[in-house]
Amino acid sequence: MARDIKAQTQRLLQWFEMDALPLWRARIIDPCTGASFERLRADGAADTHANVRVRVQARQAFFFAAAKTCGWCDDGADVAQRLLAFTESHAAHPSAGGGFTHLLNPEFEVIDFKQDLYDHAFFLLAYAWLYRVTGERIALDKAEALIAHLDAHFCSEFGGWTEGDYGHVVRRQNPHMHLFEACMALYEASGEAHWLARADKLFGLFESHFFCPKREVLFEFFNADWTLAAGEAGQVVEPGHMMEWVWLLDWYARLSGQEVSHYTNTLYRRALDLGLKTDSGLLYDSVTPGGQILQYSKRCWGLTELIKASLVMARAGSAEAETRAANAVDTLFRYYLCATTLGSYVDQRGKSDEVVVAEAPASTLYHLIVLAQELLRYCNELPEQAEQ
Fold it and tell me: Which of 58, 130, 209, 251 could form a disulfide with 123 if both were Cys (CB 3.0 to 4.6 A apart)?
């Protein structure tokens, strides 16, 4: 079986090195500003007419820094530095005393000045990886300044942070999930214990609010005090996020020594039960705890998280999960990494698995490269006798 996962891993690594990195490096970065365009069109050209989310600059900085560590992009650190320098000079909030704005027009001018918690999580992640590839302390200093800004302006009396500086009906677990990721990345990069302490607090939110032990699901939307949001919003379950938490919790266990297997086993099993479309192997975007499908669409990123979670379960001893991971990489190529332009991808499939979004958002590269890193790590840990 190890031959299968190794073969699929090499297939994905080759796709990155030979197809994806040359394409995205050449077309997604604006040569004049160093900023990233929002997406590639179906024909593989950069969509220079689309508005650009500020968070995409952070995700792309992470992507190119990570690509540099993988040996796939020689100037990845330089690209990442220029992306962040552009954002700091052109998209920093003009009056909030820190943090970033939300949206740029196609000329890279700010058109939405709100500050959003989710956006800022990816700047912390980008700073962690910029420090990893450059060793320059300034990246950590910027992360410190940004988290201090979030603490000063968005800290909630009920734990975690509020959504931002704008009116919001519900609170989301999703930004906190990515802040959990960023804090672990900063701890792993720097060795500074205060980042792990922040991850500890975010794990506490998962245990006390996000995960429901009675229904064995991860909920998405909450009131200010972390009680479930009213109506349908309070019943939304995203199988992809449940898979993502499996991976994150396993990472946290390795850093902290915390026992998490009860959570990872439950989240993985329930995400498969509720979210997997068995004929194609794709994961529905959202469902209810009772199994009602809320969104028949299936984003590319959901499958990357299923594979990462399957690697966690395989590492814990499940041969079935390793097989599922290998098969799911093949499914990833069949349904998503199959765009007309080599190195691009399909972002979304519909109810009958038809293509419904052919454009390739740059933000999905974050999910794909983390998957590649995790597959490589898993294969490097396999004993030689597993080949037999």
Answer: 58
Give 237-253 pLDDT, tens digit per residue.
Answer: 999 999 999 999 999 99
**pLDDT at 358 (0 to 100):** 82
SS3 assignment, position 328: helix
Say how many residues make up the chain: 388
Domains and CATH numbers, the chain: 2-387 (1.50.10.10)
| Strand, coil or helix: 356 | strand
Q: Please, are residues 221 and 234 in contact by the beta-carbon 8 Å criterion?
A: yes
In the three-class reduction of DSSP (H, G, I as helix; E, B as strand; rest coil), residue 110 is classed as: strand
Cβ contacts of residue 262 below 8 Å, gap of 6+? none
Handedness of CA 206, 115, 302, 387 (dihedral sign): negative
Distances (CA, A) of 258 to 200, 254, 378: 10, 8, 21
Rounded CA separation 248/241 (Å):
10
pTM of the model: 0.97
